[in-house]
Design goal:
The protein has two domains: 222 residues, no CATH class; 96 residues, no CATH class. By secondary structure, it is α+β, with helices and mostly antiparallel strands. Helix content is 54%, strand content 11%. A hairpin with a 6-residue loop joins strand 6 and strand 7. The strands form two sheets. It has a five-stranded antiparallel β-sheet, sandwiched between helices.
């Protein structure tokens, strides 16, 4: 369900940001809705909500809205100013607030739940505070608490912070309250629900990760950070695991190719060496032929090393190298006066 930022009447019920963490499945689930609808969604899978997604554990912390430019507070000021334009013509108020409504609509469609929650809460508070005493001041106070996490998070890197996080020092009494829900009757699970600020949600999240001993890791394939059970996990998901598997196979193939090359080179060397030894020793010794084979053997070794290096560097194919070795075997057999079978 999409929120209507053109609405001029506030609905009943508070809008909440409900978070539940699944330790075993390594997931987070976020539901954004009015409190009664959020409970209905969590308990029965029904209810009209603005957001309901299950994502990898740590997604909220790693993608939380940041606001270095102060865009949120600038648009909050526009909404405050529009209060003074409500009289004598109410239409002037909505016209003045339209750019802020557009900004909130854009943020709500960003896909990041922290931004969506802030956008919906902003317009909801804007509609509510107008009818209250000192409404402009109250709106500023409430939106300031709502946006403060965005300012703090602009340069925050949770994977670099000690646990518990230094973010806890930023908590104030006015925005440190959350509710704990246990909506499932048969299968209990804990839900933390926030209204005024997401700072306590962040602190709760970091506390749970610290309690479970989970850590932030950087994926060795894509470079993204993720939450893992321990430092032994180096890949963030199935896509990167598939890439790693392909790299492992490529490395294995290269290593096997290298092993096969070395084996072929060694076999050819032994072929020459065994024939030379036969000419030097035993009843078939022939010093004259042995001298000729020694000279040819030295030249062969120099050229074989050069060609093997070329195969490793990609300048010569493995097949061409094997064919050349076979030709050299024929050459040594010719020197000995007899052909011998080629090596495989």
């Amino acid at each position: 369900m999409k929120y209507d930022f053109a609405s001029r009447e506030r609905d009943f019920g508070r809008i909440v940001f409900a978070l539940t963490l699944d330790r075993k499945k390594l997931t987070e689930r976020i539901v954004i809705a009015r409190s009664d609808e959020a409970r209905l969604r969590l308990e029965r899978g029904a209810g009209e909500v603005y957001y309901d997604e299950t994502r990898p554990l740590g997604s909220l912390l790693l993608n939380f809205e940041g606001d270095k430019s102060g865009g949120w507070n600038k648009n909050a000021a526009i909404l405050r100013e529009s209060y003074g334009r409500a009289i004598p013509r109410m239409s002037a108020r909505w016209k003045h607030a339209a750019p802020a409504a557009g900004y909130l609509r854009e943020k709500s469609g960003s896909g990041e739940p922290s931004a969506l929650f802030a956008a919906v809460r902003t317009w909801d508070e804007y509609l509510n505070c107008f009818n209250l005493n000192h409404g402009a001041d109250l709106l500023t106070e409430r939106l300031s608490a709502l946006y403060r996490p965005f300012v703090l998070y602009a340069d925050y890197k949770p994977w670099e912070e000690p646990a518990p996080s230094a973010m806890s020092a930023a908590l104030r009494d006015s925005d440190s309250e959350v509710s704990l829900w246990y909506p499932a009757k048969k299968r209990t699970f804990e839900v933390v629900a926030a209204v005024a600020s997401l700072l306590p949600v962040i602190q709760y999240y970091l506390h749970k990760l610290n309690e479970w001993g989970y850590v932030f890791q950087q994926c060795k394939i894509c470079g993204r950070h993720f939450v893992a059970r321990s430092r032994h996990y180096e890949l963030c998901g199935d896509d990167c695991r598939r890439v790693q598997a392909a790299l492992n196979k490529q490395e294995f193939d290269e290593r096997a190719k290298g092993d096969k090359l070395e084996q072929l080179h060694e076999n050819a060397y032994n072929y020459w060496y065994n024939r030379l030894r036969k000419l030097k020793k035993g009843t078939a010794a022939d010093p004259e032929k042995a001298a000729a084979v020694v000279a040819a053997f030295k030249e062969y070794r120099r050229e074989a090393v050069k060609r093997k290096t070329a195969v490793k560097n990609g300048g010569l194919s493995f097949t061409d190298y094997a064919a050349w070795l076979a030709e050299q075997q024929n050459a040594v057999d010719a020197l000995m006066g007899a052909m011998a079978p080629k090596i495989d």
